[in-house]
């Protein structure tokens, strides 16, 4: 079947599904399940005969939206906060998973730029990190205390300041997405280049191992959350630039609603990063190496599982339950 005829044949049905998703037409759970199965059949047909077509992309997006509609209609009552973190956010992350990949690719690229810049320009760290910070850190390295900068101030005072500062950085990464994602990428570039030059600076002074023992205690949660916040900014920007079949305003509303929920999910990790930085990082070089590694690896496993693995598990679980209900 030619694609034009396929679209013409099903266009009214798809537009009707859009109205259901937008809440303009009410359907009971059984009718929603029937629509979902019908749409999945159309998607399978499109993937087979028009794999690189915009029609396939559109149907994939539409099916993910009605899938969420079904589950929200069928789900059992549970604590709203628990549902938010256990189900709603993972489903959204799964739906927008390619944006998480894009954010990480940009992060790796920009961080590499920071490393290379530091390697080819010895004054680059002074420009990015500031001369006072660089000079203080060099003195600390000479004293055998590469993470000395984290030992200043009180624990609780440092923790509060760090948390609010990191939440502010994350908010900028997200909100700047309103520029079509350009502002988000610029903010990610700035922070990633700083990180790359920062790490190369310690490498250049032979203190990379000691710095890593301290910095990545809190850095795993902090940096990973930063990348997810950039993901949210990209989602927001894309909703403005590419509204698909929705009006630009409705697309923006949907993009803002979904991305804001994902952004909120990063706050607990940001708070944990601030607490670790304020209370634990200052003792990094006094701790047994095995303890440092345990904290770093466990942090990576927790946040990596939540954003990379768990969304797929939730999606498959809910999808199986939905199919069982339909059958």
From TrEMBL:
Superkingdom: Bacteria
Pfam families linked: SpoIIM (PF01944)
The protein's matches in InterPro entries, at most eight in alphabetical order, are given as: SpoIIM-like
Q: Does the keyword Transmembrane apply?
A: yes
Keyword Transmembrane, does the record have it?
A: yes
Q: Which UniProt keywords apply?
A: Membrane, Transmembrane, Transmembrane helix
* Membrane-spanning segments: 99-120, 156-175, 182-203, 215-242, 262-281, 287-309
Quote the protein name from its UniProt record. Answer: Membrane protein
């Amino acid at each position: 079947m030619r694609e034009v005829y396929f679209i013409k044949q099903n266009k009214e049905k798809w537009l009707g599904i859009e109205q259901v998703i937008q809440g303009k037409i009410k359907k009971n759970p059984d009718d929603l399940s029937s629509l979902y199965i019908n749409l999945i059949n159309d998607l399978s047909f499109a993937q087979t005969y028009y794999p690189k077509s915009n029609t396939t992309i559109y149907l994939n997006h539409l099916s993910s939206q009605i899938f969420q509609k079904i589950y929200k209609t069928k789900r059992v009552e549970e604590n709203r906060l628990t549902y938010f973190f256990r189900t709603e956010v993972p489903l959204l992350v799964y739906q927008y998973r390619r944006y998480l990949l894009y954010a990480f690719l940009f992060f790796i690229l920009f961080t590499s730029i920071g490393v290379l810049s530091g390697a080819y320009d010895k004054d680059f760290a002074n420009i990015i990190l500031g001369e006072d910070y660089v000079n203080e850190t060099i003195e600390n390295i000479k004293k055998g205390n590469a993470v000395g900068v984290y030992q200043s101030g009180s624990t609780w005072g440092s923790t509060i300041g760090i948390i609010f500062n990191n939440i502010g950085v994350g908010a900028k990464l997200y909100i700047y997405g309103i520029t079509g994602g350009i502002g988000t990428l610029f903010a990610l570039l700035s922070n990633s280049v700083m990180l790359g030059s920062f790490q190369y600076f310690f490498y250049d002074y032979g203190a990379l191992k000691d710095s890593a023992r301290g910095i990545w205690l809190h850095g795993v949660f902090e940096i990973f959350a930063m990348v997810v916040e950039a993901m949210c900014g990209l989602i927001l920007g894309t909703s403005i630039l590419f509204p698909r079949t929705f009006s630009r305003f409705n697309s923006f509303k949907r993009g803002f609603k979904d991305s804001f929920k994902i952004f909120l999910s990063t706050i607990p990790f940001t708070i944990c990063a601030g607490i670790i930085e304020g209370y634990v990082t200052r003792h990094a070089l006094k701790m047994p190496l095995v303890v440092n590694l345990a904290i770093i690896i466990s942090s990576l496993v927790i946040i990596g599982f939540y954003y990379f693995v768990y969304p797929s598990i939730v999606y498959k679980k809910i999808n199986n339950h939905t199919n069982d209900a339909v059958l």
